[in-house]
Amino acid sequence: MLRWSFLFLIIAIIAAIFGFTGIAAGAAEIAKILFFIFIAMWLVILVLGLTIFKA
Questions:
Q1: pTM score of the predicted model
Q2: How many domains does the chain have?
């Protein structure tokens, strides 16, 4: 999921360089959403890993 986030970030940067502001804004928004989903999933797995292996 983090790979997809970086992919959309790169697409947003390239679109911004070429002046496609609508596409750049859309790709940046998708990258931001995917990044926060990745962080949330990582935190859930971290907490579950700490609680399961603590016993």
A1: 0.71
A2: 1
